[in-house]
User: Which sequence fits this backbone?
């Protein structure tokens, strides 16, 4: 007989007055949702994240400008962020921001501000028109916060 899940465990009554606590349902024939089963595959790692496709290709100068802005706002060096993210596979910039008291919406604003400044630099360097920069900035602003954080995290990790 299948009993309700309690946290990450299930209570199974095998018959009569014998009751067994089973970790993560699905073991010992208790049944359960395969998604919560101990045998369910783990979620894909960050490295399987499909990079976003902005209107204008992101080059190393643009990435470096964005990374520099984010690093400065986090009061860390770019190399420090890269090393910390690489040492903890699956972590994101949010993992570095949270202990510093930076909430997700604040990190989003930091990233968007850095992307905007990098776009302005592209215009000043003559690589983009003002219209190109506006289109690029609008693209980044339309992305979900988790996607934006994952994308820029990937820039740091890939170096």
Assistant:
């Amino acid at each position: 007989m299948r009993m309700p899940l309690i946290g990450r465990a299930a209570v199974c009554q095998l018959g009569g007055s014998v009751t067994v606590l089973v970790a993560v349902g699905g073991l010992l024939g208790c049944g359960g949702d395969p998604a919560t089963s101990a045998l369910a595959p783990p979620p894909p790692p960050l490295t399987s994240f499909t990079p976003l496709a902005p209107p204008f290709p992101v080059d190393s100068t643009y990435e470096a400008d964005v990374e520099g802005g984010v690093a400065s706002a986090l009061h860390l060096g770019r190399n420090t962020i890269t090393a910390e993210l690489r040492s903890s596979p699956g972590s994101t910039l949010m993992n570095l921001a949270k202990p510093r008291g930076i909430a997700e919406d604040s990190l989003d604003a930091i990233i968007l501000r850095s992307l905007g400044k990098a776009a302005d630099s592209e215009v000043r360097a003559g690589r983009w028109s003002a219209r190109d920069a506006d289109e690029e900035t609008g693209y980044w602003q339309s992305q979900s916060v988790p996607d934006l954080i994952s994308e820029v995290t990937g820039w740091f990790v890939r170096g």
Q: What stands out?
A: Residues 85 and 91 are 6 Å apart (CA to CA). Residues 2-36 form one domain. Confidence is low (pLDDT under 50) at residues 1-14, 16-38, 42-48.
